[in-house]
Amino acid sequence: MARDLKPVYHAINADEAATKLEAFAEAWEGKYPAAVALWRSAWSEFIPFLDYDVEIRKVICTTNAIESLNARYRRAVRARGHFPNDAAALKCLYLVTRSLDPTGKGQARWVPCRISSPKAR
Q: What confidence tens digit (pLDDT) does each residue in 39-65 have?
């Protein structure tokens, strides 16, 4: 089902997407009428998505990296507990972000960030 739906949101414009949706509906409406009805009812909300370039659409559809970064931020903040000021909190988030690319050459390295407290030193 996902393979047949992919051409809809990879379409170049709204007309092509509508054609692909009809092909999807022919194939799956008998087995999953609610899924087809959902796409048809939300069509007006979906069409603005097609106005973006293909590269931007990929970023919009792929939130795994953003969610991973947010999880790392939460984990680092939770481990620290509190911060004496805003600068300390920003430094902690900076170090978490920096740990993802320790070389500074754009090579992502997804490693757990170990931030030690001043008492542990």
A: 999 999 888 888 888 778 877 777 777
Give Cα separations from 8 to 30, 61, 70 (angstroms). 18, 13, 30
Same domain, 116 and 80: yes
| Per-position DSSP letters for 47-108, written without gaps between them | GGGGGS-HHHHHHHH--HHHHHHHHHHHHHHHHH---SSHHHHHHHHHHHHHHHSTTSSS--
Phi/psi class of residue 15: alpha, beta or left (left: φ > 0; alpha: ψ in -120 to 50)? alpha
29 three-class SS: coil
The domain boundary, picked from 15, 35, 61, lies at 61
> Residue 57 is part of which domain span?
2-61
Of the residues 18, 43, 61, the one at which a domain ends: 61
